## 1
Amino acid sequence: MMQNVHLAPETDEDDLYSGYNDYNPIYDIEELENDAAFQQAVRTSHGRRPPITAKISSTAVTRPIATGYGSKTSLASSIGRPMTGAIQDGVTRPMTAVRAAGFTKAALRGSAFDPLSQSRGPASPLEAKKKDSPEEKIKQLEKEVNELVEESCIANSCGDLKLALEKAKDAGRKERVLVRQREQVTTPENINLDLTYSVLFNLASQYSVNEMYAEALNTYQVIVKNKMFSNAGILKMNMGNIYLKQRNYSKAIKFYRMALDQVPSVNKQMRIKIMQNIGVTFIQAGQYSDAINSYEHIMSMAPNLKAGYNLTICYFAIGDREKMKKAFQKLITVPLEIDEDKYISPSDDPHTNLVTEAIKNDHLRQMERERKAMAEKYIMTSAKLIAPVIETSFAAGYDWCVEVVKASQYVELANDLEINKAVTYLRQKDYNQAVEILKVLEKKDSRVKSAAATNLSALYYMVVSVIPTDPQVLSKLGELYDREGDKSQAFQYYYESYRYFPCNIEVIEWLGAYYIDTQFWEKAIQYFERASLIQPTQVKWQLMVASCFRRSGNYQKALDTYKDTHRKFPENVECLRFLVRLCTDLGLKDAQEYARKLKRLEKMKEIREQRIKSGRDGSGGSRGKREGSASGDSGQNYSASSKGERLSARLRALPGTNEPYESSSNKEIDASYVDPLGPQIERPKTAAKKRIDEDDFADEELGDDLLPE
């Protein structure tokens, strides 16, 4: 066996890395500038190449290779032919390997080296797409339809429902044009059904929000009846919603049930929502037993807060006490699915604390707060609803609800129910029980402690805050005595109310009317002057002041007041009528000027009334309705409360209020200003004074007139 084993000589161990630095001289590029063969090959590649020679029969062709000492050595070809660029017998072999790099026969004809064909100029432009081709038109139409649908949805979200509907209609029209063009180009199987569905669905939705229910139902019918639309039957729920808005409960329930049949059993949440809609429809229709069946099924399959709350209401409607209790217990056992522990940092790790602080008010946390607030609202409302009826007394009912809530996850609501119990005692005027409950809650360390203390403070403030100087209370007492006909007691309380609060316009009006009734004109003037200061834009009070001066015999003061009122309210017809009357009776020349103004305003008033009557299509005019009101201000309407209306009625109930000022003396007025330019009839002052004295105070009750535009 050892005869085939050969040992290496010992000298090899000393030259273990011999030949490591040896390399093929062909890779030496430092002496390429001095390599004549290489330089000749480069020159021939840029100039004219010699013709291709025949294969030289040689077993080895040598190429001079530069050595480290500058000498040339030859490299033999392994295939027995001269190498590219090698010189054989004075003839240079052509470089055939550069054809793939862009060299052509043109180089033989003296053309320049152009491997990238740059001398040919720029490449021809790409062939443009034909915009008039049917495919391009279809694509453009699809883009426009999609944009219109998006714009419609955006307008709806911004609250512009009319614009959303217009965009939806435009999308529908363009989509029909698109379908016709596509049918002409391709087969019907290539129609974009998703685009058609989205256009129709958006159009139906916009019809619905614009309360165009008939159009919405027709559009939904188009979608539902088209068998090419998959899962379109679920839209029958939307049709049921429309019928519910129209109060067509039977059809709403029918379409809800049809939609329920279209939803597979695996889609549990959708089926529950449809059943909730069915329950709501039964409640609105008054069919509480059918609604109970729907909500009982929901609470057994997937209990939720709304279903439990509605179930409690249904049992309350039919008056079943035991079922009310059971429904309330089901309501408070609905899980909230809120993890409060994740918002509490368990350690002192800064990173964990930062994360906890970041999620304490994020959108998920806000949603959880809203869900918890809704649950508390449903529970509190249900408890307040059923507590007075589930037991023999409301206190026992509240106690039962409190005990049930304490044993649930809503422990904090027990104290809120105690607050409601105390408030119920207050409504029943059982203050001792209310104070006792509030005192107990005040000592508890809970969130209702402040509410209990506030209610107690309010109660204590009411045992000590009753004082005999409340102007509102005094005014109310005066009103009560006035209703009973005790004028003296009513005057006493109204006068005391005026002393403590001299800005109550209703009290001022009543006192002025009282002094007019008792014919104390001078005292009535001070109240109406104060009223004119409180309401300077109401011509009513200034006319009342002028009338009081006239009734007291101070005609000059009355005339000055009417003139001042006319300067402030130049378009008030009643003021002008009084000025014409007084100036005529006193023989003043200003009567003609006021008569012209009065005639012009009355004419403009008639034109305005005719315009209003024609605009209202013959409806009853408002002038006759407004005439007889105490206000003479054409631009302001005096809106009074029931008490104010009674006071105005009291003013109108004075002698002579059934007829306007000019009704008793139309002839005299007409004789004075029908022809302002003609001679004026002179009247003795005694007769004028007599006619003025015979006029009644409430002649100012001429009502409002419409001013010309």
## 2
Amino acid sequence: MAEGEDMQTFTSIMDALVRISTSMKNMEKELLCPVCQEMYKQPLVLPCTHNVCQACAREVLGQQGYIGHGGDPSSEPTSPASTPSTRSPRLSRRTLPKPDRLDRLLKSGFGTYPGRKRGALHPQVIMFPCPACQGDVELGERGLAGLFRNLTLERVVERYRQSVSVGGAILCQLCKPPPLEATKGCTECRATFCNECFKLFHPWGTQKAQHEPTLPTLSFRPKGLMCPDHKEEVTHYCKTCQRLVCQLCRVRRTHSGHKITPVLSAYQALKDKLTKSLTYILGNQDTVQTQICELEEAVRHTEVSGQQAKEEVSQLVRGLGAVLEEKRASLLQAIEECQQERLARLSAQIQEHRSLLDGSGLVGYAQEVLKETDQPCFVQAAKQLHNRIARATEALQTFRPAASSSFRHCQLDVGREMKLLTELNFLRVPEAPVIDTQRTFAYDQIFLCWRLPPHSPPAWHYTVEFRRTDVPAQPGPTRWQRREEVRGTSALLENPDTGSVYVLRVRGCNKAGYGEYSEDVHLHTPPAPVLHFFLDGRWGASRERLAISKDQRAVRSVPGLPLLLAADRLLTGCHLSVDVVLGNVAVTQGRSYWACAVDPASYLVKVGVGLESKLQESFQGAPDVISPRYDPDSGHDSGAEDATVEASPPFAFLTIGMGKILLGSGASSNAGLTGRDGPAAGCTVPLPPRLGICLDYERGRVSFLDAVSFRGLLECPLDCSGPVCPAFCFIGGGAVQLQEPVGTKPERKVTIGGFAKLD
């Protein structure tokens, strides 16, 4: 019984060791230098957060023509293995460079020499071609000497070597060839020794004899991460520069005004983010495996579909005879390239997802990095790793195969193209449509208009997708509402939610398949249901001065000769009549919204609402706008002097004149039709293309908005004790155009002043 339990325990231990070994082997590609394709040796962190071996970086800079900029970033003392004067007697001395060679090196830019000043006015800009991101990164004046070493990555590489026994035995660095196997290492000397060489370089009675031997290793690291500029231990992290800094760096002018935090805070914040992202990936291993299976199925379907497409094309081309043989070969080659490209993209996506499995690739490397206890080193190594984990998490959340498995675009239509065999080619999907922003708007409904680019293939139909952006995000991929097979180049979205922001996009489709989506367009819907009404010229409107359009949605005021004569008598006193136009709808409940456009050249226009009864009283005895010499208490006012202070005004108007909006204290009062708009010190704002009016009948409030951006301009109280009507007042020349409704307005009866009218 005991032997069976021991055997089961041994089997479990061996399985665990196999899993650990497999995990470490899968992580090997994360530990390879992109230049030499070998394990990292003294890796440096480039400004683009990628890593490269120090020796490889020097070689790359040398190939680029930079000399003298490959200094050791760690600035550590040289080891006995690199010091000719302290080499072992068993090792021959290295020949020193000749004086003429040293002179050439100095004159080529290495170090300083007479005639060359430090800190020149135009320092050389050193650009390093990063082999990982294929971009040029700037290293600064100091070159490689200004970069940090990735000590955490070195530790991970060393643990990996120990786990999989990469590289075999470590040899002594001081022995004469053939070297013996190293038995000891010295951190102070930064070298590995056999027993004989260790005794030789650490003689008894000297200071080196106090060096403590360690296990032999290929990488000697400093005890802590040092600032490459000041050789001080890093203690803070600059969020602005995204760089570790020391105490001296903090007081430098280069970091003046930057947001700098202690390295402990950066360590904890970055570790929490990395742990959270890694926990999410590890907690969704089933999703990763499902997506891998889906990608593998897509690969199989791509192979089958590609083969079918090739067979169909071959059959069509063979029917055309010998004239089409050369064309057939080119078409098959195009399909093959497309298939291989898709397979390569899908295979790469599978490999990326496999790296997200527990203990594999990127995840395994991240798990090893999380074991790092040195805070500065962890912050340095985890910054680039967190970006990769974040991108992997985003790719996992918004999963989509990297390539389509359909080859419908490879079909040939040989009906009319028989005469154009020399131009025979695959059908192309429609290009991304262009949204017509001048004709696209949201009012009672959403009207979307678009067009195809000039040289785009035609589209048989379109697909319109839309969604709200002001609702809480749901877990998983973004859900779009879709309207399929839209004919024409416009679409109408009915019954949108009020006070919401919609994002819309469209794409075309033909026999070759679906094209790319257009750019997203964001539309803001009105804050309340849209009120449909027409202009009624029978109440307060002068037929001589006001011209209402046939559709009763536009009105223009023509001042004529009376206004010119009044202007001539302005200094002696005159009366200017106010022309008023009402809407044929009265609001008695709820919230309502409508919009209009005012001609910027209008002299004086008032847009707003008022009580139906008060407006009718004003029509019977139309008030006048008085000259400056007219007595203000002559009775030509709105009756506001008889009301109490607490009472809401019966009118609420926004005053527009000469392309400006007056926002004074009197604009929200019941000055109404009298024209007395408060103090002259009221501020003005530019007139927007369209004005919006939102009436809340229950609250007794009316708001004036910019109908394009829905920015609030003014909010006023209003007496809503009876039916309330839209109203427009003119003094002098002016024009107003009501916003056209998008959808078809149903017929309904409305009542104003006891007259029933069909709306």
## 3
Amino acid sequence: MAEERLTTRTQFPASAESQKPRLKKAQEFPILEKQNWLIHLHYIRKDYEACKAVIKEQLQETQGLCEYAIYVQALIFRLEGNIQESLELFQTCAVLSPQCADNLKQVARSLFLLGKHKAAIEVYNEAAKLNQTDWEICHNLGVCYIYLKQFKKAQEQLHNALHLNRHDLTYIMLGKIHLLEGDLDKAIEIYKKAVEFSPENTELLTTLGLLYLQLGIYQKAFEHLGNALTYDPTNYKAILAAGSMMQTHGDFDVALTKYRVVACAVPESPPLWNNIGMCFFGKKKYVAAISCLKRANYLAPFDWKILYNLGLVHLTMQQYASAFHFLSAAINFQPKMGELYMLLAVALTNLEDPENAKRAYSEAVRLDKCNPLVNLNYAVLLYNQGEKQGALAQYQEMEKKVHLLQDSSSLEFDAEMVDMAQKLGAALQVGEALVWTKPVKDTKSKHRTTSTSKAASLQQPLGSNQALGQAMSSAAAYGKLPSGAGGTSHLTKPPSLPLEPQPTVEAHPNEASAQIREK
């Protein structure tokens, strides 16, 4: 009965759709970029471990053909300091996508970080062929040429970068080239244009203020440093520069107040401790000055200006052996500065080594063509040694320098120097009428505020010029007349350690703190 019911069921015809043949599913191929978004997300969050895990998985799926994963892996290697590995990966990206200028730019940057500047220039030139409107390529080419000391080509490339697109960093590098060439006027013009373009950039304002300060144009220096502090009241570089200006004018207590603020931001700054030390020196707190300068020397053992200041302070305290030690070290780092040899000669004179003192004075006279103090002190030594003809020659040379300085500027010479020069001239004319004695070691040194010459102010770094002038005075004061005339003639620029944002590129294009913009 049940079987009959099953056989008598109505059979419905199949639908037309079910009769159509089913299409086969297309074969799935791996999508090379399917996890790029996740790689990018981890990278910008700086979650590098998770980023590397995703990159590893992506490269396994794509058999190493995912360009973006390789690119980000190379960036991470560079951040970790593995420059050579990053270079190899960027070269792989360049092979995968040879028409991409960005890959070549990264290859060139890795070469630059490895110090291969010529190879970096070649790669940048190849990238420039692919993209002729990229200002970064021109900028980075200019930086590479700076390191090769090809300043003309560097200027050309940086000007090209500014023509394509104006950026603060390009102005900064162009200004540093002029500073490397010793052309402060052109450097100031460049930084003025940069400030016009970016008036709120505190680094540009501070650098321009430092340049004016270095030239002795205090009004403009104070104006630009004040603007920098207006936009960023915690800018320690500007505060340090303002403090050095106050220190230059003898406001040691106010300068120390400024330095206290800076010490909270950068407690291990060598220029800071140098300037604090020279503030204490200006206040005649010599032990505190030496302690601060020793700390600065510990933080920057190869900075000749700190060694210079230590030598001056030890000369003032009549610790001639220590002064000789620090001045000799400073000469090793700055062998072409005449004042260092002069102070070394003062120390040698008091160490009863007149022959080496004469050699040091001779070198100082050869190197320094504008400072009459060198010739005056040398003449004092020669006269003390009985060499009147040599003393007369140095005295006449000193007179020539004084006349040149008087003609070029309305300079008021230090009264002590004038008095010493007059007594020396009288002694040389009268001959045996006056009797000179050799330097007395227990002589009290006199401290006076210096009047620096225009030529000197062109080179004087930032810092405690007045305090250093006092040290220079005391350093030159060890050849004394019985009549009480001090040999403290000081018409010199007493250099002190510049601030960290020093615009001059001495040993350090900032010491060239050249920067290459990274994509």
